[in-house]
Amino acid sequence: MDITGMLAIIIVIGGPMAIAITAIISDHRSKQKRYEAMLKAVELGKNPEEVKRMFAEEKEKDGKDPNSRLRGGIIVIAVALGLALMALVFNQTLVFGGHFGNFYLGASAFLLVLGLAFILIWWISKPKSK
Question: What is the pTM of this model?
């Protein structure tokens, strides 16, 4: 096997693994800091109920924006449309023999469906007004 093939395999398999491991470590560190802050508050003589309320308020502030899924869906659909436009340009100019545009059309179709799924999830989970 040549060096390019080995490098491609390492990047394809190792890249997502590195991202996942980094996310897990980051989440663990943030939970550890939160635990240490709670412990410090209790050591300083705070009432446990007061500490619980204090950290519950902090958690509410970290809550996600209810329209974040709608915004994410719109952004993903815009990227899908950009990829579709790029595919049309590649097919017209016959870059890479005109076959590379088909890859972009497939990727844009996937992203379009993903964006529509985000918007559907937002629409289903939005609060119903009375």
Answer: 0.49
